[in-house]
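Reader question, answered in our methods column.
A reader sent in the components of a multi-part assembly and asked whether the whole thing could be modeled at once rather than chain by chain. We filled in our standard form and ran it. Here is what they sent:
COMPLEX SIZE: two components
ENTRIES:
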Amino acid sequence: MPLKRLAIPTASESEEAEPLPLHVLKRRICKLGWTLYYDVSPLFEEHWTGIPLVAARLGEVLFDAFPENTRFFYENHLVSSEAVVDAFARNSGLFLQRDFFKGDAREGPMPLLQAGSRAAGIFPSVKRVRRIFPIECSLVHDLSTLITPQFHVFDTIRYHMETICEDLASNTVTFGVSRATVEDLKAYFGIEEYRLRVAYNGVSWPWWFPIQLANEPREENAEPYFLVLGTREPRKNIACIFDLLNLFPDLLEDCRFVIAGRIGWLAEQQAIPAALEAAIAQKRLILPGFVSEFEKYRLLCGATATIYPSFFEGFGLPILESLSVGTPCIASFSSAIPEAGGELCTYFDPFSVESLYRAVRKLLACSPKHNREFRAGCRAVAKRFTWQNTARQILSVLLAEMEQSAGLAAGRIAFIESHAKPELVPPWPAPRGRRRANGAGLRSE
Amino acid sequence: MSCSRNIKTVGKIRQIVRPKFETQRQKTTLAPAPAMPEVVPAFWRDVLLAASIPTNGAGCESAVKPAAQYSYRQRLFGFEAQLSALSAMLSGIGQRLLFVPAPELFAAPSSYRPFERFIAPERSNVGLVHLRLGMARHARLLKGARNVMLSAEAEILPPLGPQSHPFASGQVVPSGFAEQFVYYPEQMPLRRFGNRECARAVLPAGAAMTDVREALARHPAMEPAEAAEITPKLCAARGLFGCSFAEFDAEEWRGTEPARMTAHSADWRRAFALARESGAGGMPAHPFILLAWNLGNPASMLPALVLRLCRSEHLRNSPLRVVLFPFNETWETAQAVPQLVEQVRNETLRPQILRSIFLARLSRPEALPLLPALFACGWIEGADPERFFTLARLNALRIPAMMLASPEEFRFSSTFALHQTIPPDEELRLRVSDQFGERIHLVPSLSHRALADVLLRSEEMLRQRFIPARQMHHAEMFAIHAA
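And here is the structure of the entire assembly that came back:
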């Protein structure tokens, strides 16, 4: 429903052309002879959630599409592709990090790249090194450390803020994971529109998840539950859920609440109120902590709905995950979340527990989970937001830059040829000996 | 016969005494206040005006609400005072001000829907103007709105060495700001990110103290002579709370209206009771000194000054009671007050001194008229970026101000009534570690000797300002006998 009375200039959705299919991109990039260098520094985390997860999925798609033309690197070192692929399979960077620092996963130093080298660097997060590749791009997941520093610890803020200006300046193009993030980059740093692009995150589940889930014994008349996914940190606003259950304990009589995710930073701000301890003891409120990918998938599929009350998001991956399995989502209307959720989500004010209560009650009374239109919408979302599409969005832009670079190089050669040739032939008569050495001169003689 | 003669004589004496009293008062107060500002920028009219301040939104129950419903932690100085003054100024011209605790929330078109309920049904196509108050380094944008920075900051002491955070200097605002509005021309011009110019305009005269004037118009300011009528109970009823360092409780301080804090503080009550015993020790009523502490200034010397004050014998021997009013409290500085109290408690040799130094908070405008009668003078940190704004508020409240350790290079205009300026005689080396990085500031400060001098001057100001009834009576009797 568009706004009718408030004159808000909507973000200039630069209607970009549909990105080329991956196989076309592959053919054209290979034809130009470019190599893609992919920074694996975010993959050194043990548990992949958030940025490491995005980095892993994108890296995986790139390597699948361009196995010969993709190299992995960390700072100034090449990283063994086998070790990275192994980490993709394990869904954890624990061994990758160990092997890299032991030296087993290192493949020597980065090649010395000159200005004319055909190498493009893709940095899925903060750049640990910069100005190495002729074309560089990085992904900005959000500006939360700048805009909402109250939700972060000082070290994280400093890590992201110390180099952000350098990162942005050294990028040929910067990708934001949503239009809201791109608008933030424009509004806070004044970056020109042409140097910014949107590369939406994607969602994908291993093909065997649905089969494995279908083969598991099902609980008859399982009680409905609401699922809250996310690391327990203040930005995720889990306190809002605690307030909801504290103020409206009747909800716990009608359904259960599961809050899954590892305990993050500033956890004391997310402390569970004493009043909810009884609910935890009676298993009306369940906090399983960090869950595996399959466990997450199972929880998502079985939930009546998911709740995502975050204060600020660069994209909102858990919303996509929820919709991709056909589970409705109640989300705050904050920042980029409506971009991910579109018309399929029920939105509420993250400051207002009452508005969340109304949304939960509405969904309990009439869940769209089995509604045909809703399920079709979910399928469309799952089809639109894929990691292949993310890679296509990035590579299409890079291809244009590569072609421009090739065109410039060709143009430069043509320019040199067209302008430099007359200078090579001196206008005055050449010395006799030299004329003789010159075939043309000999012919003229 | 003798009776009438006596009356005439008394009348004459009053003529002698009063002008002296008036002279002292005039010296410390502003010229007649200008009328309520009638001019607001043209583009503020016929739009939705939404203000935001550097809070984390804790305690807010809605993403958009009328500014009148904002519950102030304190409203004497800083960005909350800016909000209070702005709200009063706009309500004076019939314009409504909204409050958004988190302007970053609004991005997708559908997220602006909460604003729609504040638009009159007959109107459409209403623009949105976002007024950002507070420190420039905490500036945030509301996308889709025209963003305006209302800055109360003047020059900021730069740290030694470079700063890595893009907005650490406090002189740069995000690129999306259209204009900067300042309260006084002396204030620092800001630049937009990328070293771009930021259009600058001065707010209407008196914009910094509209709420103070409104409060004084509603409840006339209490005169020093009426000071004895002020009790802690009256203060608490009007929204002025205090407690001594000895009785400080961090939990109570965290609350919005720490009524329990005042109720528990026997020292606060004792200070008032002793003050009512005016004349004792030759000192008049309420020997309180107001000390404005800007928590938003990372290079503040005040914690060091307070520690020094508590460790020295000067305060112990002085009848003065120093009352700290912390302001510009953000998520980052919320721990600054408990930390200072803890440090003072640990490092003070004589615990008795902790009963002479207080922390206070003024959260409702009804308490503003009490301040002129309670405080002999106000101390402002000379290198505080918001010194002009703080000074203007003290001027409006008719509290004489003393600027401590003001660096020579910091400009000052005659717009303000400033009783005394104490030049710095020492330099502190402060190590700061916050979200903007680790840095070192060289901050002008006051030595023990200068601090003792400040206390003596403040005592003198107290004597001049509060002529106690007993002294007046003695002067009259002396004049009668002389006649």
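What stands out: The radius of gyration of chain A is 27 Å. Residues 387-424 of chain A form the longest helix (38 residues).
Send us your own complexes using the same form.
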